[in-house]
């Protein structure tokens, strides 16, 4: 039987024009140059980068990377542009084969920052970790105030797990860290949530292939959805849509609580809108229910049918006993949907919502099983 304890890594990984390859001893001068250039921007977060950092430190680091690679607990890659210039470093370390887990770290030299280098490189090495090393979880642990590295984790689609106290040593002191996690990508055909159908309406989980349809639906609907949803602006990007799809697919697997479904046409599978259960309070058997319909499909009763279909499922198939629909008081279209679905108006809550930094009063509706009979 072949020994598969330590899979052999490819010599290079491609990250959209950036080459990732293991550091070599003759890279020491290039690494030293990249590090020394970047003391001001990255030394606050990397304790090994100090004012006395010299060429021997670079050589020692490269030797440590090679030793870790041979042990199988670290895979570090230098980042190089098309001209062979060193741009930084990305690594999987603390690899635990028994648990299938690893830590992911990265840094980019100052002159190459702000160009998406870290995001592309981190995505490539994460794919390597899942596809070649067989990992099932990759963590990114970042100082809470390290905004740039946190943004990189978020652009990757990593899930924000928590702020973990005393998780790292920062400037000689125990410090809290933001912990993010990546899981292996799901197959397109693997369900991530229920499929509910009634007439020509299907509620189904988001798929990665919904990316462009989601983006187009929202950009079509700036005048209606954008009026009441602060995140729905002309700046909403494909990356935003990609992160949302990853987030909601994870929620159906128990990571996070933004459990959303596509409102789709059963015949064509066209994305017509979205409906979600979120803000779950399991101890009270309660969750929020929210919805939107793209502009070309509005005023056809779609949202009302979707609300009743998902509410019936949620109140039968889960421990939920109460669903709340919270709507800005002036959002008459969404209020009519709640009322037509059978939800009961319980009152007006002052300053219940925040829209573009301003507090808004909200109408509070509730749905229980008796409302749907």
Automatic annotation (TrEMBL):
InterPro entries: Acyl_CoA_acyltransferase (IPR016181), GNAT_dom (IPR000182), Ribosomal_N-acetyltransferase (IPR051908). It comes from the Bacteria. Residues 18-186, 201-371 form the N-acetyltransferase domain. Gene3D superfamilies: 3.40.630.30. This is RimJ/RimL family protein N-acetyltransferase. It comes from Dyella japonica.
